[in-house]
Design a protein that fits this description.
339 residues, alpha/beta, TIM Barrel, seven-stranded parallel β-sheet, two-stranded antiparallel ribbon, 11 helices, 11 strands, 37% helix, 15% strand, globular
């Protein structure tokens, strides 16, 4: 059987700051953060090699993942492919002596500059392809953040600017200072709030969208049940209301809908979820993550699926009849997400 390869490309952003990438990216986070026991490092490096060799050119990490060790993993694994792939990373959390100060943000210009220099070393690159503000720091005006990244772009240390989990008004304010190439937020069939106010602004300003957790942290792949137990020490799903046993039991209805839809088209529930997302707009590039080669194969095959408008209407109509149970974040994390 032929191995799946991503051949389709998409464009994030516009103008001189546009970024051409594979239609499907790869989220590196779960290889060393928030997804249970850390897999074997050598195996993860080999899996990242497989992704790069099969056409994936967009790889996403962040300073807070680990913290720091996920950037190091991405930098080591993808160094041989540094001329053909793009590694994106994020700044904005307070990290002191390699430790994340829980809940604290720091987007002061001096910290942005310091973190940029450190990320360059960990990622083993000459310039950061896309530097995202990970969470909005209420103590620092977004204009100051955008201005600092603008200076880093002028100096050649960063190539493009991105934002994560921000409102439409913040996108406009930042974009007026330094054009934004992409916005990253959670988005999937169980969480579509970004369609209301953020998507119209992205369309208007020519900004790309990079959905993280496009399979709702693995849930839409169908392998999670109410009996699944998450490692409280290194799996944030243990703290998320939507992953409480009663919520999982109620929400499995959506997986049944995806499976039913996919059976007549030769698709798994995960492939349906990814194909739906890519059909929503040409400027959307999801970044599913995995630690398993079989799931990488499954995800990559979704990049070749084309759903018709009638397919989309049928799927969304079925999903709209389901009431999703549980918030996506506990209050402590939700307060970092701008609405």
């Amino acid at each position: 059987m032929n191995l799946p390869v991503v051949t389709r490309q998409r464009v994030l952003g516009s103008g001189s700051l546009r970024m051409e990438v594979s239609a499907l990216g790869f989220g590196v986070m779960g290889m060393s953060y928030n997804r249970g026991v850390h897999p074997d490092r050598k195996a993860m490096i080999e899996l990242l090699h497989q992704a790069a060799e099969r056409g994936v050119t967009l790889f996403d990490t962040a300073q807070v993942y680990g913290p720091l060790i996920n950037e190091e993993l991405a930098g080591e694994a993808l160094h041989p492919y540094r001329h053909t792939v793009n590694i994106t990373t994020k700044f904005g959390h307070r990290i002191v002596n390699g430790k994340y100060i829980d809940g604290e943000l720091d987007s002061t210009p001096q910290n942005i500059r310091r973190m940029a220099e450190e990320s360059l070393r960990r990622l083993r690159v000459e310039a950061i392809e896309l530097f995202y503000l990970h969470r909005l720091d209420p103590a620092v005006p977004i204009e100051d953040v955008a201005g600092t990244v603008k200076d880093l772009i002028r100096e050649g240390k960063v190539r493009r600017f991105g934002l994560c989990e921000v409102s439409a008004r913040t996108i406009r304010r930042a974009h007026a200072v330094q054009p934004v190439t992409a916005v990253q937020s959670e988005y999937h069939l169980m969480w579509r709030e970004q369609e209301k106010e953020v998507f119209p602004v992205l369309q208007e300003l020519g900004i790309g969208f990079v959905p993280y957790s496009p399979l709702n942290r693995g849930f839409l792949g169908g392998g999670i049940t109410e009996y699944t137990r998450f490692d409280a020490g290194n799996d944030n799903r243990a703290t998320l209301p939507r992953f409480a046993p009663d919520a999982i039991r109620a929400n499995l209805t959506i997986v049944e809908v995806l499976n039913s839809f996919g059976k007549t088209r030769g698709l798994t529930s995960a492939q349906v979820a990814l194909a739906w997302m890519m059909a929503k707009a040409p400027w959307i590039v999801p970044i599913p993550g995995t630690t398993k080669l079989a799931h990488l194969d499954e995800n990559l095959r979704a990049a070749d699926v084309t759903l018709t408008p009638a397919d989309i209407q049928e799927l969304e109509a079925a999903v709209s009849r389901i009431r999703i149970v549980g918030d996506r974040y506990p209050a402590s994390l939700q307060k970092q997400v701008e609405s």
